[in-house]
Amino acid sequence: MHHTIQFRDLTLRDGQQSLAATRMTTEQALRVLKTISDAGFPYLELWGGATLDSAIRFLNEDPFERLEAFQDVLGPDAFKIQALLRGQNLFAYQPYPDDLVIAFVKQAAASGVHVMRIFDALNDWRNLQIPILACKAYGLEVEAALSYTVSPVHTLEYYLQYARKLEEEGADRIAIKDMAGILRPWDALRMIEGLKATLSIPISLHSHDTAGVGTFNALLGMLNGVDTIDTCITPFASGTSHPPVELMIVFAEALGLEHGLDKGLILQAQKDLFTIFDELAETIPYHGRYYHPLSYDDFDRHIVEEILMLAQEGNEDSLRQGMALTRSLLLKSGYPPHDERIFESQIPGGMLTNLHNQLKELGKLDILDQVLEEVPRVRARAGYPPLVTPTSQIVGSQATYNVMTGEPYSFVSNEFKMLLRGEFGRTPVPPDTDLVAQVLDPNDDILVYRPAAYLMPLLEDDELPPFVHSQKDRLLHHMLGGAADVFLQGRAQQSGEQLEKMIEDVVIGI
Question: Torsion angle of alpha carbons 112, 116, 120, 125, nearest 10°?
Answer without folding.
Answer: 130
